[in-house]
M23 family metallopeptidase
Amino acid sequence: MEKKDWKQKWKIKNSGTAFGLCLVGVAAFSVLFATGQVKQAQREKEQIAAEQLAQAEQTDDGILPEAPDQEGLAAARSLEEMSEGMEVSASDEVTARMEEEAEPVTETEPQTEAAQASAGENLQADTEAREAQSQDILPSLEFGETDTLTWPVAGSVVLDYSMDGSIYFPTLNQYKYNPALVIGAGTGSQVAAAAEGIVESIYTDDETGTTLTMDIGGGYQLTYGQLTDLVVSEGQLVEEGALIGCVAEPTKYYCVEGSNLFFEMTKDGVPVDPVLYLE
């Protein structure tokens, strides 16, 4: 019984020892394998370093693997010289273009000044011509005592000229002097120039509404009141019989008299009877 137990214990002990030895063997193999890998890697690094060092020494000593290609060097030099020549040529071309573009500016400046001077002279000449024309027109407007006027509008006299005594104004319901003719005409009736003249002014008056004054020469002036739709402007030369506008609605001063044309004539600023000159 004791002998059997001893054998069993020996087997168990030997089994544990064998297992331990196996573990030690595996560990030793792993260490050897890892050591081999490290040494292999170290050898590869040393070989790469040796090759790099050899290449560096050959470069420092000026040793090339092959003899230099003289034809290639010559071609490289030729290409370099051509490149430099092209750069110089391009630079010269750019400079020439800049000079060409700059030249017209220098040439055009005197032309611009000359053109401006010429334009100024033309403007001055045009102004002088207009002034001369105006001066030529004004003396030609010589209306005299023997000249006649044409009726400015078709209608009948509602209120006659009266500076010698007062007359009755129905709308105002009073008597007063009348320096003009009040010619009854329908609204929109055409008003023509009674004589050739130059429009001096156009203004609005409370009594006569839109009013136009015209110089006919010789110190005479015509005034047209109660107008609308004017077709002339200040400074314009108007021929005798030409349209100047239309009859407007009457102002509050002529409500009873109805729509009309206020037609006044003066000589050197003094009212005169237009009937004495009307045909």
